[in-house]
């Protein structure tokens, strides 16, 4: 089954099963759901943009990508997606745990390559465009994984595992050592992760700029500039969007009462909730409910 990621923070999702920790996702971004908010997870992901274009922000750096481009995001790497086109950007993603490839084994492959990749000691090229030397081989690997995942012939789990190992082997000559990246960037990434995690845990509570600034030990002024620089919106705009996304998710899960949804998502004024919801999604909560129930 293809699972939409447009509303979910992927670090909360279950990626596959315990014995086969790999899951396919289809992401569709549009004017209604224009972004996948910044998140990270313990799994790696391998993506192909199938339609439109968008901007990936990976470890605080923006990367414009177009249809046909491939993206490899290692575990624990902070990333978000913002659509640049209307009506839609579409992608296909395989999210997998590195243990599936043998990261937990006591062998040279795990020690020399898989664990350093998972721990960000070696940094692969995140974006693989047509001009990249490994693009043709990486694209072939992606298509083979997709075909195997759909057809599920006998032994397909082994074949997908071998293809992902082949992908990593292809990327290794183009990896950089962690020392090539600035300590300041790593510190900023850690601070931003802490703030985003705090918002995810407390979005239903009253939140202020002072509350969020205290998480990373910044002054309010410094924090506002810091957050805007890396997220492209103010901290309170981000909180508002998280709350609205959570509200939309509750409606999709069958919630009926706008009042209960608004209160559970941190909106204490129902009129304000209706106005903000309509501004973000182009329709009132009631119309949104009727549309998803058709």
TrEMBL record:
Query: Is the Zinc keyword given for this protein?
Result: no
Q: Which residues form the HTH araC/xylS-type domain?
A: 193-291
Q: Which UniProt keywords apply?
A: DNA-binding, Transcription, Transcription regulation
The entry lists its GO molecular-function terms as:
DNA-binding transcription factor activity; sequence-specific DNA binding
Which InterPro entries does the record match to this protein? Cupin_2, Homeodomain-like_sf, HTH-like, HTH_AraC, RmlC-like_jellyroll, Tscrpt_reg_AraC-type_HTH
What protein name applies here?
Transcriptional regulator, AraC family
Q: Which organism is it from?
A: Roseburia intestinalis L1-82
Q: What is the lineage of its organism?
A: Bacteria, Bacillati, Bacillota, Clostridia, Lachnospirales
Q: Which gene encodes it?
A: tetD_3
